[in-house]
Amino acid sequence: MSEWMSVGADGITDIIGEPDEPTIIAFPGLPSEGEGAKGIATKDAPAETTGERYVSTRKTGITLTPGETLTILDEREEGMLNYAYIKAVTGSTASAGKLAVYLQLDDYAQGGTDSGVKNLTLDKLTDLNFPSDIPGMWHLTVDKTDEKVALFRGAEQFPHNKRIRLIVSNTDAAQNLSIEEVEIVRYQNKLLR
Fold first, then answer.
1. pLDDT 10s digit of each residue in the chain, 193 long?
2. Which residues of the chain does CATH 2.60.120.1390 include?
3. 51-191 falls under which CATH superfamily?
């Protein structure tokens, strides 16, 4: 209890002095009053939006119901994609090839941003058989009947300046689909609000 107030036996608080000056609690990335000070963000001193760091988003053990779509990442930012990969398995569920991947970098998505998020399935990647040495395109690193691993390599010549979004969908109409693992790693320059 502070030295400037006292609570009596009857529960009534008596002010018996003056309170201490408030303390600013510092949080990294949140400026406060004064040059270079850190603390609570205010209207005059908003939170810093420079990230300048590697950010990894990883999810495991995902089950998608028939027709379900799941957003893994949707961020308004400036940065550069390092890589994204997805491992889908068949097991006792829908074929791994029924998984659709949609990775949007600003106004670019393989297959087009207007084609819909369920356009590019892993079965279609099998048919297209893209080479692995071309950045900016999904390709399969493992292509078996019960397991498919898709990889998207970013490149310095393809930075994103407005948005990055990764969405996965189960295109099977009757069975669940299993994603063993999905990971997306990017260098974040700045968050956009």
1. 456 666 676 667 666 666 666 555 555 555 545 555 555 555 555 555 556 889 999 999 999 999 999 999 999 999 999 999 999 998 767 899 999 999 999 999 988 888 778 889 999 999 988 888 888 899 999 999 889 999 999 988 889 999 999 999 999 999 999 999 999 999 999 888 7
2. 51-191
3. Protein of unknown function DUF2961 (2.60.120.1390)
Cα angle, residue 103 at apex, residues 97 and 108 outer, rounded to 5°: 130
Q: What is the DSSP string of 162-184?
A: S-EEEEEEE--SSS-EEEEEEEE
3-state secondary structure 24-87: CCCCCCCECCCCCCECCCCCCCCCCCEEEEEEEEEEEEEEECCCCEEEEEEECEEEEEEEEEEE
Cα distance between residue 41 and residue 27, in whole Å: 9
Spell out the long-range contacts of 54-59 with Cβ–Cβ below 8 A and sequence spacing 24 or more.
54/82, 54/185, 54/186, 54/187, 54/188, 55/185, 55/186, 55/187, 55/188, 56/183, 56/184, 56/185, 57/166, 57/183, 57/184, 57/185, 58/181, 58/182, 58/183, 58/184, 59/179, 59/181, 59/182, 59/183
